[in-house]
Specification:
The chain is of the alpha+beta class. It has 16 helices and eleven strands. A six-stranded mixed sheet has the order 1-2-6-3-5-4, with helices on both faces.
């Protein structure tokens, strides 16, 4: 497992370092507790728009200077807006000038100026980005998360409301930016080949004097439908006779799981892995009904859901549905063996090996582990790798008692 050095500045900025001088790059990930879940209906998309504007210049570093830094010193850079977190990622071949790098990142985060002409341009870019993803946004796989996470009908855009983005006043954007972009609401993670002493000194110089109130945003629940018993979606598949079946079961968020059991989140992740294997065995290997059947789990601080899905011929839809629910019921009733748990542990180790070998993935996972769960990857790894068969069965029993009346069945044909 990787070694970590965690510390916090007096203004609340949390920093996580994972140095490794055997690697050939260094990646920096910065995340804020602000995203789509914290927006009202009237500000839907503002976090996405702020993310775009942070690359448009500050008083100290104008757009040309920022572009020069990103083009000449990074091999990858990007901003991402998710449900609970807005993040910024930078990958460099080296960190030979850490003070310059962290001065730029600090100014981008907390001193962006939002030039009017650039704001108009980026509003248009965000709207185009949202609308260009129309097919993906309305894909059947996205319908579960849309219904559960955003409390919206399946036709809602996840990247923001284009009409609200276009008409959003600048003072509203600046107010939310100045309120929630603060050091105390921010985590920075750095992974790869770097000198920890130099990096810590540079971060202190760049961020230490920034004094802002730490205002934690409130979780905003969207209006609209909250329960879907059965939803039919018109398929985008141009070939007749093909259907998709999606089943979603709502589960509590990670914080509630931790209160019930330290291993609750880890147990549910194992169940997702076990179900994925068993669905393929049942629907494809034995019955030959599908090309692909899968399961996925999403757990964060405020939400969680389990999704099972398969794509099959329309004539085989009912049999596929029966087998999917049959495998789910087996897991719920404790039909799990040591072999299932051991296979999941092997998959977990392989996944972590891939993460640790990539500085960008490693920095990203350090960031997400801290922001979503308040733990580092090693803690999460220890929890998951120490799971027993009884732990997984207990998680399955817990799944049975939660959210069953709020499940969603979506069929596209």
């Amino acid at each position: 497992m990787s070694s970590y050095n965690k510390y916090k500045l007096d203004n609340g900025l949390e920093v996580i370092l994972s140095p490794n001088n055997h690697l050939h790059s260094v990646s920096i990930a910065v995340g804020l507790n602000y995203g789509l879940f914290y927006e009202s209906n009237n500000t839907a998309g503002v976090s996405h728009l702020i993310e775009h504007m942070l690359f448009e210049g500050t008083d100290k570093f104008d757009k040309k200077t920022l572009k020069g830094f990103l083009d000449n010193q990074t091999t990858y850079w990007n901003g991402e807006t998710d449900a609970e977190v807005t993040s910024y990622k930078f990958k460099l071949l080296n960190l030979s000038k850490p003070q310059y790098v962290f001065d730029i990142i600090s100014d981008m985060l907390f001193n962006s100026v939002f030039p009017e002409e650039n704001l108009i341009k980026e509003k248009n870019a965000v709207v185009n980005e949202v609308q260009s993803n129309f097919g993906e946004e309305l894909s059947i796989e996205s319908a579960i998360s849309r219904a559960y996470l955003l409390k919206k009908p399946v036709t809602t855009f996840l990247g923001g409301d284009p009409r609200k983005i276009e008409g959003m006043p600048k003072n509203t954007i600046l107010d939310l930016y100045s309120k929630y972009y603060s050091p105390g609401n921010t985590v920075m993670s750095i992974a790869g080949n770097f000198n920890s002493k130099n990096v810590i000194k540079s971060i202190d110089n760049a961020f230490g004097d920034i004094k802002k109130d730490n205002i934690t945003p409130d979780l905003r629940i969207y209006t609209g439908k909250t329960k879907y018993k059965s939803v039919h979606v018109k398929s985008f598949n141009p070939y007749p006779g093909q259907s998709s079946l999606i089943f979603g079961m709502k589960i509590p968020g990670a914080e509630e799981l931790y209160r019930k059991s330290e291993k609750g989140r880890a147990g549910l992740n194992y169940i997702h892995s076990i179900l994925a294997d068993r669905l393929m065995e049942s629907l494809r290997d034995k019955a030959g009904l599908v090309y692909l059947a899968d399961a996925e789990m999403d757990i964060s601080r405020h939400t969680g859901y389990l999704v099972l899905y398969a794509k099959t011929k329309t004539k085989d839809l009912e049999e596929s549905k029966r087998l999917i629910f049959n495998e789910l019921e087996k897991i719920i009733t404790g039909d799990v063996i040591d072999k299932n748990v051991n296979n999941s542990k092997i998959s977990l180790k392989a996944s972590l090996a891939d993460i640790f070998d990539s500085t960008l993935d490693h920095a990203t996972e350090m960031l997400n582990s801290s922001l979503k769960y308040g733990k580092d990857i090693n803690q999460l790894y220890k929890e998951e790798i120490s799971l027993t068969l009884d732990d997984v069965r207990a998680a399955a029993a817990y799944l049975k008692t939660e959210g069953k009346d709020d499940s969603i069945l979506i069929i596209s044909n």
